[in-house]
Amino acid sequence: MALSSLSLLLMLSTLLSTSESNNQVCDAWNGYDEAQCGIQASSLSKILIKGGTVVNAHHQEIADVYVENGIIVAVKPNIKVGDDVTVLDATGKYVMPGGIDPHTHLAMEFMGTETIDDFFSGQAAALAGGTTMHIDFVIPVNGSLSAGFKAYERKAENSCMDYGFHMAITKWDEVVAEEMEIMVKEKGINSFKFFMAYKGSLMVNDELLLEGFKRCKSFGALAMVHAENGDAVFEGQKRMIELGITGPEGHALSRPPMLEGEATTRAIRLASFVNVPLYVVHVMSIDAMEEIANARKSVMLSCLFVYSEIDNDIDRFLLKDGGFYCITYMVVNISLLENSSILTRSLKALLSSSDKFIIILGFPCFIIFSYFRYVMSPPIRASGHNKALQAALSSGVLQLVGTDHCPFTSTQKSFGIDDFRKIPNGVNGIEERMHLVWHTMVESGKISPTDYVRLTSTECARIFNIYPRKGAILAGSDADIIILNPNSSFEITARSHHSRLDTNVFEGMKGKGKVEVTIAGGRIVWENDQLKVVPGSGKYIEMPPFSYLFDGIEKADAKYLSSLHAPVKRFNSAT
């Protein structure tokens, strides 16, 4: 079948999948009425959660939780309240801090298009899945951090839950250096991301990386890296095209684990040279994970903090981020992409997939995007990487679980049908993360409920210096709370999710452990499988610099300088 025919079938299939989609969230600003959008003008109320097992990162206990004016007022047994209080029975269920997703890309302009979820639809999906705050990445406008921040302020005007910002650095000059200080001291940003990949667009070289690391250290901001060797990836892409491998399998083949491992160790060594804490995002391979593990064990590199993020689907994706594990990487492996023929792969998937297909001119037309939808960077790895990353998460080598929620529709993904280099990179996960981590890690016995809270909420709040306002069920903390029923089941489908995405990378996954109630800022926003969200109700959370990761940095610097015995006096050889 010619590629032109495939393109036609793809478009027809896309139209079918989109028209039959039954997503429950719409754009509140596109003329839909409030009932259609699940919008309800809820106000702050007094809430009592009775009889649940309250879980924090350090302990759990059976207690009541009383909320008033958006704040947790008391956590203790047998709280008595008046008739004006909404009472939620949590007997036999877990009461936990709402999830904090440390890595998202809403309304992000990338590779000639924009992610399909904006700050309203993406956040609404998050709330339905038990996440009550996320940290998004501001992308500079023509290199300008200030212009980028203003653009993202506008993007976030319709937010329905709390959010914070990281800032990407895509070029270097004195203006950028000065703007970094403004972002930290005036805009509430305490982390900066440097891309070691995406040559020709976002990638920075080692000189810029060192300059950025030094500025981060001086302001108490966390340095973050996307660790892949961009020059080698570019060479790998050329190699695949020369071999005639143009389909989505070329994406993973062009950027093997060794390139992630090389960039990870280079970032670690450079951060150690500067003596600045490091956050490696979306760790995807054993190669990168082992570099992180070695750094954390090393006395020489003991100042380093490596953050890791895990993907939602344990059996299909792997973990992501050094110290930060992406839920998608937790569950997917490269066997999905191993055949070189797009049609062969599509037909093979058709036999084992529940995705819809249609018959056109006698040809079974599987939605080609079933493969394109898995394209992300770093890419899905061979079977075995995900299990190793899960083990690293449970043992503490990796510290966090995030999503890198960066969704593109099947139409957008089809931009690369003739060239994998043009496929927009990214998948969904913001709604699925909490359920999949529970099912994959807690239900299976790999981690405890307290570990779950640490990995999905508390450690993120600590790293980005907003604990205990966020990430805790304590008196005085924000009332961002979930009630999870460990005996309830869930199933993930594109028809029922709340993202605007027309597919779901975790399609058909089932598991135990369901978020039945989400409370965000003291409002019940998810209950009885219904969303009650208000555009514009979300707040920007400023994150102060100098988190606990910077403890001991000055002492380490002083020890290093004293070891040099500087300055050294020398005599001129001529005398």
TrEMBL record:
The keyword Cell cycle does not apply. It holds the Pfam family Amidohydro_1. Its cofactor is Zn(2+). Transmembrane segments: none annotated. Keywords: Hydrolase, Metal-binding, Phosphoprotein, Signal. Residues 94-525 form the Amidohydrolase-related domain. CDD domains: D-HYD. It catalyses: 5,6-dihydrouracil + H2O = 3-(carbamoylamino)propanoate + H(+). Residues 1-21 form the signal peptide. One of its GO terms (biological process) is pyrimidine nucleobase catabolic process. Carbamylation allows a single lysine to coordinate two divalent metal cations. One of its GO terms (molecular function) is metal ion binding. It is an enzyme of class 3 (hydrolase). The modification N6-carboxylysine is found at K193. The keyword Hydrolase applies. Its EC number is 3.5.2.2. SUPFAM superfamilies: Composite domain of metallo-dependent hydrolases, Metallo-dependent hydrolases. One of its GO terms (cellular component) is cytosol. Belongs to the metallo-dependent hydrolases superfamily. Hydantoinase/dihydropyrimidinase family. PANTHER family: COLLAPSIN RESPONSE MEDIATOR PROTEIN, HYDRANTOINASE/DIHYDROPYRIMIDINASE FAMILY MEMBER. This is dihydropyrimidinase.
